[in-house]
Amino acid sequence: MLRARVVLVSLSSSVIVSSFVIRHRRRGTIDCVLRAGWIAAVSVALTLSAAAQGGLAPSPIAYLVAGAQEGRVRDEVRLGIALQFGRGVEPNPVEAARWFLKAAHQGDPAAQTDIAYLYLQGSGVQRDERQAFQWLQRAAVEKYPPAQAGLSYLLLSGRGVKQDLESGVRWMTRAAEQDFASAEVNLGIIYSKGIGVRQNQAEAVRWFRKAARHHFAPAEFMLGSAYETGAGVTQDLSQALLWYHKAADQGYPAAQNNIGALYQIGAGVPQDVERAFYWYRHAAEQGHAGACANLAGAYARGRGVARDDRSAYFWALLAEHGGGDIDWPMNGVREFIRDRLSPEEARHVEHQVEDWLHNHPMAQEGWYYVKLSSGPDYIAVSPFFDFPQ
Fold this sequence. Notes:
mainly alpha, disordered C terminus, 389 residues, two-stranded antiparallel ribbon
């Protein structure tokens, strides 16, 4: 699992917030681009074949409605997407689910995958993990990679079906063998952690490389992590930075955060706290909790930026909203910074945080947007999947 991990740096008894750097690391979990709880935007990843991968240009809503009413499956799927995300029409998850279901009943695997994830979310339909499993199963047997990867996740996690690691690995492998980048990354993590297979770091790196050929940011990030830690490859911080930069240049915040951490501690590069601040800022503005924590520390200490207690408190509060492993160090940091502010200043910052969260949702459980090379859409990517061991 990739999680925020505390690394002690320049321990200080006087300024607690300067004593940690939040990093992303791998632990015993599985990544899956097709996760569909906790964020509505996931559905776009499930219709890539019907949209971006198929090279289809957006159609006027009137045309889509007419085509959908005539029973044209492609238009039913497109209309469902438009209704779900408000593209040219007011968002309506119930209607989106209705059109996905119509296309799904006609045997379209992309629509079957879409409606499966709506059932997992409870978006437009009542949440029903068993229904999600059944729809993914129908699409997976049609050799549709997103469905195969999604089915794998349910089998590995035991959601909607009894946990079956062997079958989960088999379905992820089938998706990966069709050059589905997210499945290749997932399979790499399966081998990295020994989930249902013998642990094999070299095999993990092989799958990360295959996915990275698609310029897939999560794969580039995982290669950076492998080179930083020496998992499956010879440790090489210059290679770690190269791969982190490839992912970071696509806007992947976990990579941006780790670049900042390397600059802060001077690992593989000359120490440069201003550049560290630059990268933390980019990641934090996307809601990356670890970067928010690191940014709070920078503002509180005046490291790479002028000291600013209000900004430090702002980013510390946002870091806490991200949850995960950073909760326990941030509890003390928050109180430490808050004591520097007047009650009025603290309340003002807290209102600012509420406004920010309303307009810029945190990257809950690692949801990030990655630009597709094949079109203008974005897909939701998460490297954080817990499931029972």
